[in-house]
Amino acid sequence: MDRRSLIKHAGIAGVLAAGAAPAVHAQAAIRWRLASSFPKALDTIYGAAEVFAKGVKDMSGGKLEISVHPGGELMPAFGVVDGVQQGTVECAHTAPYYFHGKDETFAIGTAIPFGLNSRQLTAWFYDGNGMKLMREFYKEYNIVNFPGGNTGAQMGGWYRKEIKSKDDIKGLKMRIGGFAGRVLTMMGGVPQNIPGGEIYQALEKGTIDATEWVGPYDDEKLGFQKVAKNYYYPGWWEGGAQLDFYINQKAFDALTPELKAIVESAASYAHTEMQARYDARNPAALKRLVAGGAKVLPFPKDVMDEAFKHSMALYDELNTKNPKWKKVYEDYSSFRKDQNLWFRFTEAQFDRYMQSAKL
Ligand code: CA
């Protein structure tokens, strides 16, 4: 090594040594708070936010740390859109359809009656126009969204009496989540908005005739089978209910490209992991429910057809009334058409064969 390069190397070492102390300060951890819309008891859904936060912390070597807070701790469960929009918290984990009252377009981000299933919705978001269109929509709320889990097709809920035809829906008082209540109303039903913790008592007393929740794994914990044993399928209003991570635009923009990639990656893992948990845990829960007296029944065809007819009429109406909805729904509905054209062949055929085979 000649003299000049020795000086050069010493110089670099000197700069590095001098820079070391301030560099450590510059890299102090960024701390975010995540407001979940869910209680810890919904461990699969709430858990997706914990998986996300852990992934971000581990991959960033602690440069970005996210604390996860259950619904109600930092703000009301349904206050998280306002919270992220105003920057009260940097991020949230929620089901967009809770906010259909602000704008119906939110519902497309979770599930709409007779919408895409879990696989198809992920395909629309990751490889179709879903992410682009929903991000355009979320701009006015200062939100950058990332898919954050899916429950898969939900069950149709618990009914005190059997549903024999569409006439049995008339006057039916049913606890049902958000947007789907509009279709239930069109069918003559009476949707009820009851917090999770109060549903069991209302069903037991007969204040309501029916309730839907999620699927076997979550439903079992609430014990509905003891008071309304008729357990119907499918939950035509939630063929694949997706959760979202909402991140405040400014907080996201302030991240380095490396941390942005880490956030995206951790969200994507949490998204996959939540569906996996439901798929892995639902079968055993369903067996236990049946052993405990649940009667598992399909909705009659005329109930499905009636619900389908009214859902499509609602979408036609929204297309004329809400231009934001129309822009997103047009793309969503043509994607849905093609997905069902494809899935009916090999996917559905393979599944049907396997489900009827003696294993
Ligand atoms: Ca549900």
Task: Produce the secondary structure layout.
Elements: H1 3-26, E1 30-36, H2 43-59, E2 64-69, H3 80-86, E3 91-94, H4 105-108, H5 118-126, H6 130-138, E4 143-150, E5 157-159, E6 173-175, H7 180-186, E7 190-192, H8 199-205, E8 210-211, H9 216-222, E9 230-233, E10 242-248, H10 249-253, H11 257-291, E11 295-298, H12 301-321, H13 323-343, H14 346-356
Parallel strand pairs: 1-2, 1-3, 6-7, 6-8, 9-11
Antiparallel strand pairs: 3-10, 4-10, 5-8, 5-9
Helix pairs in contact: 2-11, 6-13, 7-12, 12-13
Bound molecules: calcium ion (CA).
The site of calcium ion has 6 residues, from loops.
Describe the protein in words:
This protein has helices at residues 3-26, 43-59, 80-86, 105-108, 118-126, 130-138, 180-186, 199-205, 216-222, 249-253, 257-291, 301-321, 323-343, 346-356, and strands at 30-36, 64-69, 91-94, 143-150, 157-159, 173-175, 190-192, 210-211, 230-233, 242-248, 295-298. The protein is 51% helix and 14% strand. The protein is built from 14 helices and eleven strands. It folds into two domains: 26-151 and 240-280, D-Maltodextrin-Binding Protein, domain 2, CATH 3.40.190.170; 157-237 and 292-326, D-Maltodextrin-Binding Protein, domain 2 (3-Layer(aba) Sandwich). The relative contact order is 0.15. A six-stranded mixed beta sheet has the order 7-6-8-5-9-11. It is globular. The N and C termini lie far apart (72 Å). Mean pLDDT is 93; it is low at 10-24. Helix 12 (301-321) packs antiparallel against helix 13 (323-343). By secondary structure, the protein is an alpha/beta fold. The longest helix has 35 residues, at 257-291. The structure holds calcium ion. Calcium ion is lined by residues 154, 177, 212-214, 238.
